[in-house]
């Protein structure tokens, strides 16, 4: 899992008959440390007989959901570290009056100051409540139920607003496009293996994947700490 950072150099205006300055470019390479995420689920055969719904299908669906939740936790942890602890980043935005327009504008500015557009804003539903209080005309809401289930709730200031209960209360994350922020590298995609326990008369499945997560450009994320509420 290798990633090469974009080389940085600058041009200058030369005086008449001036010599062209040169820079020696050395690429910076980042190696991701992959991690395994796994869950093993079992369903007693008796449960299949007494349930009115297909518990086997639900167990497999639930296993995939739990894997996705664990992915999100790791991604949010990487964003939090890059936006609050990593060297060379902007100041964390704080607001004690809820998620106001001014506070969210400052969070956006943490990325836009580096000449990168904000692609996504992610927050807990409690913070999205503040945006609702701004008024109906501020946000271009998504109405398709399939999209709402993913946490995508609407568009604001040319970026997508998403909610997740896995984010800590009071946290708001603004994230640039992947080429300006980070990567989720998949070495082994989600696998589902049958793992029954015959001695206990149980169905079973093992879910696992092998992935790497990194914020390659820390300026591609911006963090806000929000307390209080609007209205």
Task: Walk me through what this model shows.
With 231 residues, the chain is α+β, with helices and mostly antiparallel strands. The chain has one domain. It is built from five helices and twelve strands. It has helices spanning 45-50, 55-84, 101-112, 125-132, 145-148, and strands at 2-4, 29-31, 35-44, 93-95, 118-123, 140-141, 152-156, 159-163, 171-176, 182-194, 202-215, 221-226. The strands form three sheets. It has a seven-stranded mixed β-sheet, sandwiched between helices. Strands 3-11-10 form a three-stranded antiparallel β-sheet. Strands 1-2 form a two-stranded antiparallel ribbon. β7 and β8 (159-163) form a beta hairpin. The longest helix is centred in the first third of the chain and has 30 residues, at 55-84. The chain is flat. It starts with a strand and ends in a 5-residue tail after the last strand. The relative contact order is 0.24.
Helix-strand layout with pairing:
Blueprint: E1 2-4, E2 29-31, E3 35-44, H1 45-50, H2 55-84, E4 93-95, H3 101-112, E5 118-123, H4 125-132, E6 140-141, H5 145-148, E7 152-156, E8 159-163, E9 171-176, E10 182-194, E11 202-215, E12 221-226
Parallel strand pairs: 4-12, 5-8
Antiparallel strand pairs: 1-2, 3-11, 5-9, 6-7, 7-8, 9-12, 10-11
Summarize, please.
The chain is an alpha+beta fold and 231 residues long. The protein has helices at 45-50, 55-84, 101-112, 125-132, 145-148, and strands at 2-4, 29-31, 35-44, 93-95, 118-123, 140-141, 152-156, 159-163, 171-176, 182-194, 202-215, 221-226.
What overall form do the CA principal axes indicate?
Answer: flat
Cα radius of gyration in angstroms = 23 Å
Q: What value does the average pLDDT take?
A: 87
Helix run count: 5
Order of helices and strands: EEEHHEHEHEHEEEEEE
> What's the number of domains?
1
Low-confidence stretches: none
**Portion of residues within helices:** 25-40%
| Main β-sheet description | 7 strands, mixed
């Amino acid at each position: 899992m290798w990633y090469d950072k974009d080389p940085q150099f600058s041009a200058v205006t030369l005086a008449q008959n001036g010599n062209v300055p040169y820079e020696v470019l050395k690429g910076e390479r980042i190696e991701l440390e992959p991690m395994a995420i796994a869950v093993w689920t079992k369903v007693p055969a008796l449960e299949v007989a007494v349930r009115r719904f297909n518990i086997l299908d639900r167990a497999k669906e639930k296993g995939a959901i739990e894997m996705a939740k664990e992915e999100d936790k790791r991604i949010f942890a990487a964003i939090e570290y890059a936006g609050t602890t990593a060297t060379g980043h902007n100041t964390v935005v704080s607001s004690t009056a809820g998620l106001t327009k001014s506070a969210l504008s400052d969070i956006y500015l943490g990325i836009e100051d580096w000449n990168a557009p904000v692609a996504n804003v992610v927050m807990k539903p409690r913070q999205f409540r503040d945006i609702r209080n701004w008024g109906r005309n501020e946000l271009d809401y998504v109405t398709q139920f399939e999209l709402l289930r993913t946490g995508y709730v609407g568009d604001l200031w040319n970026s997508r607003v998403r909610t997740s209960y896995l984010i800590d209360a009071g946290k708001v994350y603004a994230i640039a496009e992947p080429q300006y922020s980070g990567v989720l590298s998949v070495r082994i995609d989600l696998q589902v293996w049958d793992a029954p326990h015959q001695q206990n008369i149980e169905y079973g499945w093992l879910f696992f994947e092998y992935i790497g997560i990194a914020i390659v450009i820390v300026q591609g994320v911006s963090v806000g700490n929000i307390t209080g509420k609007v209205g």
